[in-house]
Amino acid sequence: MKIPLHTKLRRAFRGYLYAIISKIVHVGEVQSSLDKSKINKIVIIRPNYRIGNIIFLTPLINEIKKAMPQAKVDVIVGMKLAGEILQGMPNVENVQSIPRALLLHPIELYRFIKDARKEEYDVAINISSGSLSSEIVTSLVNAKYKAGFETKNFTTLTHAVKKEKLYQHSGHQTLELLKLFDIALPSKETLLDIQLSDEEIDNAKEELQRLLQENSIAKNTKVIALFRNARFDKKIPDAWWQEWFDSLKKLDKSVVVVDILSPDIVTKLNDDVLEYSNKNLRALGAFFRACDIYVSADTGPLHLASASGARVLALFNKTNAAVYGTLGSKSKTVDINGLSAKEVASLTENFLLKDHL
Prior knowledge:
Largest sheet: 6 strands, parallel
Distance between the termini: 58 Å
Radius of gyration: 22 Å
Strand content: 15-25%
Mean pLDDT: 90
Number of strands: 12
CATH superfamily of the largest domain: Glycogen Phosphorylase B
Number of domains: 2
Oligomer: single chain
Structural class: alpha/beta
Number of helices: 12
CATH class of the largest domain: Alpha Beta
């Protein structure tokens, strides 16, 4: 198969950058383990711009807290909004974001490099060893040790472990990095968890009750949070959602659906649903938890709902549910290929009633 020109150029550019980094950063023999008792300051590097991929860091962050309670964690991400999800976690001190267009703005790039060098870390953990952007950021941070997964590409790492593919779910795959600190891997399923505070949970409950009260709806009404957006062909058409809604209301006319609006979904599904939005993603996750269930396709807010402790009904039509599906007994993942909207509405009602019997 002929390789496209843009792919050749990208590979060549990556090769030149790796060569430049190799001359700047001298790395000796790569080791495989670190003394966890001497690690007090960690930076996790994941310059990614998707909400789900940032939330998939939470199992690793929470396991680090259990095994190394003395260690404080900073995180470098791509999307500022997604990074703020991690900011409220107990052992996370600072979250720094990297704008996509940073390379096009030399002054901002200089400021980022200066800020990146300001903090001193015991270890920097590169989640995506071999990724050019991750390697560049790893080379810039001021860390005594730099660790991650082994890679065939040039790397800035001083410590690395082999990725043995012990886990299938994307939220679990980074747990193998615990081997760097000789920490035993979790023996049971580890959930996504952004560690919402009691205050965040209580505020969301009050927010939901205000919404119901403003619309003259009783407090004990069953409430479904619905998010209709998703990337590319994972998105379920509005016509399908409308049929799902109509079928659901025929099964139980008392059910209330709250349509979650976003910059990409600016109008609600119909006049019979309520609407809600919140730019604070931790508050939004807490709102999902306050509702009886959350329903959507495979998308970032789905993982936010799961990591917030919500009861989630995940509707998968394209992606691999074993890799990206919900975790834990509170939630359910459904392959909707071959199912009608009416059939999914029936599944939704059954799932909703499980908590009200």
